[in-house]
Design goal:
The protein is α/β, with parallel strands linked by helices. It has helices spanning about 45-50, 85-90, 100-110, 145-160, 170-180, 185, 210-215, 220-235, and strands at about 75-80, 115-120, 130, 140, 165-170, 190-195, 200-205.
């Protein structure tokens, strides 16, 4: 059985939001969750509108805006990355920076039309650091707690889109969907069948396109990404 993210218990009294869920800004980080902000009804537009006001974890404080998923509700494939980057945070759209452009090219080379895919991230706010004020914002990986707090948004997207296949882009997305024991190097390019948020899903894990951009052998890393996406294309049929 695959491992699930663990929630640390606390002895502190936790304030609750409507519906009985822990208040998102209660006095302990263990209580952080986006759950109270996620609407029970409505499609992707309703989710996107509600997500703009999400305060489910501290990441919203420094980010410019929420970066929700993009694409059609009828998309057959959903691609899940880690979190928005600098350009995504500024523009409010996922995968519009260098990694997104590379991903579009890789999808096309693999035989998947980017326009037919729904793209999103496990975390909806840009987490970053910078050495000095006004200096370039440097990506900082979200913690498991932050990823878990944002999980209700991803669960809602999966519910509304109901994709035939999920492409998992990198380790953070994999851990958000498959648990903390996930290792992308062990399962990349394979078709997995797992229950995700109460739904049977098929998934193909691969590296995040930003890893290709950082690779010493960028061309070889790119070919590997395309090869994994070709397996996803065949799985779609």
């Amino acid at each position: 059985m695959r491992a699930q993210p663990q929630t640390t218990r606390t002895r502190h009294r936790i304030r609750t939001a409507p519906g009985g869920y822990p208040h998102p800004m209660a006095g302990t980080e263990d209580a952080y969750t986006a759950e109270p902000f996620v609407p029970r009804r409505g499609g992707l537009p309703a989710l996107r509108e509600a997500a703009a006001d999400c305060r489910g974890c501290p990441l919203h404080r420094a980010a410019t805006q929420t970066v929700f998923g993009a694409g059609k509700a009828s998309a057959r494939v959903m691609l899940v990355g880690e979190q928005p980057g600098d350009q995504e945070d500024r523009q409010g759209k996922p995968f519009v920076g260098p990694a997104g452009k590379l991903l579009d090219r890789a999808l096309t080379d693999a035989g998947i039309d980017p326009a037919d895919a729904y793209v999103t991230n496990a975390v909806k706010h840009f987490k970053f650091t910078r050495a000095e004020p006004r200096k370039r914002r440097i990506h900082k990986a979200p913690t498991l707690r932050e990823t878990t707090a944002c999980g209700p948004w991803l669960a809602a997207e999966l519910d509304r889109v109901a994709p035939e296949l999920i492409v998992v882009l990198g380790a953070t997305a994999g851990k958000a969907l498959l648990g903390s024991s996930f290792r992308v190097t062990q399962v990349r390019g394979t078709v997995l069948e797992e229950e995700i948020h109460g739904r049977p899903e098929r998934l193909v894990p691969t590296v995040h396109p930003s890893a290709v951009l950082r690779a010493d052998d960028r061309e070889g890393a790119y070919r590997g990404l395309v090869s994994d996406l070709e397996i996803a294309a065949r799985a779609l049929g």
